[in-house]
Amino acid sequence: MVNIQQSPTATAQGPIKQYDAIIIGAGVGGLYALHHLRKMGFSVRVYEGAAGVGGTWWWNRYPGARVDGPGSPFYCYTFSEDLVREWDWADTQPDQPSVLAYLEYVADRLDLRRDIQLETWIRDARYDEEKQRWLVETSAGERICCQFLICAVGTLSAAYKPNIPGIDDFAGECYHTGRWPQETVSFVGKRVGVIGTGSSGVQAIPEIAREAAHLTVFQRTPQYTIPARNRPLDPELVRQVRENWPAIRAQLNASPAGMPIEITKRLASEDTAEQRQALYEELWQKGGFHLLFSSYADILTDKEANRSLAEFVRGKIRETVRDPKTAEKLLPDYYLGTKRQLLDNGYYETFNRDNVTLVDLREDPMQKITPTGVRTTTGEHQLDMLVLATGYDAVTGALVRLNPKGRGGVGLSEKWRTRFNTYLGIGISDFPNLLMIHGPGSPSVLFNMPLGAELESTWIGDCMSYLRERGLGAIEPTPDAEQNWDQEVAALANATLYPLTDSWYMGANIPGKPRQFCAHLGGPLYFQRISEVAAQGYEGFVFEQKRDGGVTTATGGPQETDSETAPGRSASI
Ligand SMILES: Cc1cc2nc3c(=O)[nH]c(=O)nc-3n(C[C@H](O)[C@H](O)[C@H](O)COP(=O)(O)OP(=O)(O)OC[C@H]3O[C@@H](n4cnc5c(N)ncnc54)[C@H](O)[C@@H]3O)c2cc1C
To answer: Alpha carbon 94 to chain centroid distance?
Structure first.
């Protein structure tokens, strides 16, 4: 049976290692933060539960997993022209092995691995108010003390296994897409069931259908998906991008989602129905996010505009899926784009295959999972393999599971019981010196994430250096600043159609989770806001002078640690 729990832990013992900062997570965010902070002369160590670097791209090895956001060569680090020149992407939407290979290359190229400890979960982190430092324990039984706890734990890293009766009784192979095994999984000759039709399900289903003897798709919510139109990268585009990288980087920084996508100012009502149809058709053929972002400016804010595009996509589903009953089951009825917009490579077409069955759980609810399959009200679907494409406890899940204890020993899970407040999506009141990358209330999942990670890590580095230069012991947002930020994030979301839909953006996929929109929708305005906060002496934060009881690490070097982590050996990039 699939196990999404972290590995068992050893009892904490041995000397306590001292660092300026530890970073939790070696994904896109943690890798860049390590590089950046080390260059600034801080002593830093990364702890990662997985057996390799790459985060999302290490865990999500399911068939069909690939970048769908900005596509290449734009889903990458932007800070180094050398990296842009050195790495050759093959496709417009690189697959998981390619992104993982890229991140492994970056880790080697920047000599990051010497400061990364793999297969090590952070199992406890407590703030010591007297020492103004975090005391951290790992699953390997080590204890670490650091001034800054940098959480790069991922927005889509806490895999969610739904509480379906009998889920642990299934006797066949069972995998969660976000915890896919390292070994090759063969579907040949097997009866496979996929539960879930979100991003991972939509990517995996066409691939599994090609191999399996039979595929049964259990669908709770039909989804709008747009053809990704993945294709080999045009060498001419690559040449131009490499020649003009500074200008392109500036363009990405200025774009609302950090992507090279043309954003229109035109409203849907300014065109006739025929003109709209023609534009939608053109953008559908182009593929990718263009249909959502380059059609009309009010698709995500105006119900009528949204309906016109949604109806266009529903028409495409009816056109593509030959069996009208199946097509009807696949028709979504939420505001298009208000759930994570999916891109696919032949998803709707898959339902024309003889070896694929769609079970609509709205009309035929799931009762339980049995040792041999899935029972719905109409009978049992016999299966050899079950794939849980059931997603994540998104954005806050990994932080809540980490459950750091702030002032007074109060855990984050308690603090965030009814609402997850942050300031700037980076800091949390009562959790001094805890800084997040892609935290709730930052643009996170609605921005090109490698670029977002760079910009946030740079802010964090500047903030740490502000404290270092002034001999300050701690920084923490005020509850007022946090509350105002919460209102700002909510106001931006409430001006759109996002909150009208049950989505993981709203926490709706997790029973009992607070309903709250998770991301700041400002894009570049967000990054401007956080720069202004810094320029105004970290407005909204309070500082503490360094106390005598605090352990002072010589800046730039750890104490009580091995020579591997000695400072001053950062790479030349
Ligand atoms: C299938 C898929 C496709 C995606 N496609 C895109 C895309 O096209 N464009 C885009 O911008 N984004 C995309 N994303 C989002 C993607 O998650 C980000 O782009 C990016 O990889 C996030 O990097 P990260 O470092 O913030 O988090 P992650 O990559 O999730 O890394 C976090 C790491 O922290 C580790 N960790 C967590 N808790 C602990 C702990 N307690 N102790 C030790 N380690 C811990 C985890 O094991 C994980 O490896 C996609 C996500 C998925 C799942």
So the answer is: 16
